[in-house]
């Protein structure tokens, strides 16, 4: 990219600047864990007018395309601008999954300074990187799931006192839940950011169900619905959410979730049926009022519920 400037300073730092002078990257050369002050080969054959030798770096630095070659005292350093995919893969190999996903979201938003091998327009960028973004997310979920599975299998093979094993089991299960909750949060934010809720509610949810953590996934959705980041749910997810929360006695919480949903994107009849089955009358009123501008039906239904309750009480006495 001709809009960038690479500067190599005397401390062996390679700095990358954009056209407006903003620093994009700063690289320090490290070999075998050591930082070298004299990372560039130089000679002192020339002196200034005061007789002091000056450092000269003739033929120690060469540039070809997006690659800079730096000749050091005992090594050759090759530094190059990575294509966007290689850059993210490098972060993955270093174990920095959050850095890789953050980088991916920045590219999706069009922050491409210091990155090569991408189209010019934002729409073209998103179209080009979208398959890889989905693959990145699923790889992350698979990586964490495998890590948890290995941890569980290693623990199962260990022996010990019964009380100690029970405490260890509880600790391990708690850690497992925390790990999946963290993964679920990352998946929700990532999918919402790139506009792929279909992946979230289909592929990602299926992976959580397969790992016997479907309920955990549903609980992770709640704060995002309350923040209006998830305005709608597919019918199967909606039903699973209501049934899961009902089973735990969290009816008020699921009702609050419904109050934050976009009615036009819901399966109206399904949600109304679920509200009636579980007695979510606040949500039922909201659905009829906001969705159909119908104030009469929920009122009649509430009166019917009150009458039935009164009859039951009268029969009891």
UniProtKB/TrEMBL annotation:
GO terms for cellular component: HOPS complex; late endosome. Residues 216-310 form the Vacuolar protein sorting-associated protein 8 central domain. GO terms for biological process: endosomal vesicle fusion; protein targeting to vacuole. InterPro entries: Vps41/Vps8, Vps8_central_dom. It holds the Pfam family TPR_Vps8. This is Vacuolar protein sorting-associated protein 8 central domain-containing protein. It comes from Aegilops tauschii subsp. strangulata (Goatgrass). The lineage of its organism: Eukaryota, Viridiplantae, Streptophyta, Embryophyta, Tracheophyta.
């Amino acid at each position: 990219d001709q809009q960038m400037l690479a500067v190599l300073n005397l401390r062996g730092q390679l700095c990358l600047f954009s056209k407006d002078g903003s620093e994009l990257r700063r690289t320090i050369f490290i070999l075998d864990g050591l930082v070298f002050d004299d990372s560039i080969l130089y000679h002192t054959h020339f002196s200034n007018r005061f007789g002091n030798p000056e450092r000269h770096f003739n033929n120690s630095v060469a540039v070809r395309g997006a690659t800079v070659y730096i000749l050091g005292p005992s090594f050759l350093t090759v530094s190059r601008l990575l294509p966007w995919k290689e850059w993210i893969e490098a972060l993955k190999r270093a174990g920095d999954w959050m850095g890789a996903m953050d980088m991916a979201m920045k590219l999706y938003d069009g922050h491409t300074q210091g990155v090569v091998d991408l189209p010019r327009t934002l729409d073209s960028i998103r179209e080009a990187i979208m398959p890889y973004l989905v693959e990145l997310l699923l790889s992350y979920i698979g990586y964490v799931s495998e890590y948890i599975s290995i941890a569980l299998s290693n623990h199962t093979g260990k022996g010990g006192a019964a009380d100690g094993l029970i405490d260890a089991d509880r600790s391990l299960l708690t850690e497992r839940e925390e790990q999946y909750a963290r993964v679920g949060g990352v998946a929700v934010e990532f999918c919402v950011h790139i506009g792929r809720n279909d992946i979230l509610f289909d592929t990602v949810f299926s992976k959580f169900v397969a790992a016997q953590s479907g309920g955990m996934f549903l609980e992770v959705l709640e704060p995002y619905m309350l923040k209006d980041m998830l305005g709608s749910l597919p019918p199967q997810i909606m039903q699973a959410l209501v049934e899961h929360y009902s089973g735990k006695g969290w009816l008020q919480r699921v009702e609050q979730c419904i109050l934050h949903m976009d009615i036009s994107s819901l399966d109206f009849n399904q949600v109304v049926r679920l509200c009636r089955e579980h007695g979510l009358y606040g949500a039922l009123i909201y659905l009829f009022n906001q969705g159909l501008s119908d104030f009469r039906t929920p009122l009649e239904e509430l009166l019917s519920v009150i009458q039935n309750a009164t009859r039951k009480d009268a029969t009891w006495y």
